[in-house]
Specification:
Blueprint: H1 2-18, E1 37-43, E2 71-81, E3 91-97, E4 104-110, E5 117-118, E6 122-123, E7 128-129, E8 135-141, E9 144-145, E10 154-162, E11 179-185
Antiparallel strand pairs: 1-2, 2-9, 2-10, 3-8, 3-11, 4-7, 4-10, 5-9, 6-8
């Protein structure tokens, strides 16, 4: 019985030796998926993003309407992950009105981009006089984020002025226009 036990012990060691790894390293793969992202948001104080303005009537005969104060309450926030279709692929933020107000120019000027990381883009520093056609407001946006909320992204300054050459088109009214921002591929 002793010989059988010794033989089993030797076989056990021999089988165990073949089960050992022959290298001092090993590896595996990890697949990382990064989704395409194109998100845009307008942030206002206490979540309010709609506002109104009122031109002031002159108090002296012969004077023009008084312009409303500029509105600087709103902030534009965005997140973008571009696709890998080319090193030069970028996005832009475009802006337009759904309708114009006869005799009135509405202009938006984007402020310096704050917060976040990445290729947040280049603002059109002179701003845009809004029309019913899309116009670039921020260009050269790559993969980035601006953070969310007021004081992040780009502060929007709206100004309102009567168009001198179209002053005769002004009528007593309270039109409502919609300003649409779109984050789009170039």
């Amino acid at each position: 019985m002793r010989k059988l036990s010794l033989l089993v012990s030797i076989l056990g060691l021999s089988i165990g030796a073949y089960a050992q790894d022959v290298n001092n390293y090993d590896s595996h793969t990890i697949q990382v998926t990064i989704p395409e992202v194109a998100l845009l948001d307008i942030e206002g104080p206490s979540g309010v993003k709609n506002f109104g303005v009122t031109f002031t009537a002159p108090t002296e005969a012969g004077n023009a309407l008084g312009n409303p104060s500029n509105n600087t309450d709103l902030w534009l926030n965005w997140s973008s992950i571009i696709t890998e279709t080319g090193a030069d692929q970028t996005r832009a933020i475009k802006v337009k009105l759904n309708a114009t107000v006869p005799g009135v120019d509405i202009k938006v000027v984007p402020g310096t981009i704050t917060g976040g990381q990445g290729t947040k883009g280049t603002i059109v520093s002179a701003g845009v006089t809004l029309t019913t056609t899309d116009q670039d407001l921020v260009t050269a946006i790559g993969s980035c984020y601006t953070e969310s909320g007021t004081s992040k992204g780009s502060n929007l300054t709206y100004s309102f002025t009567p168009i001198a050459a179209s002053y005769g088109l002004l009528v007593t009214s309270t039109p409502t226009v919609t300003v649409t921002y779109t984050l789009t591929d170039n």
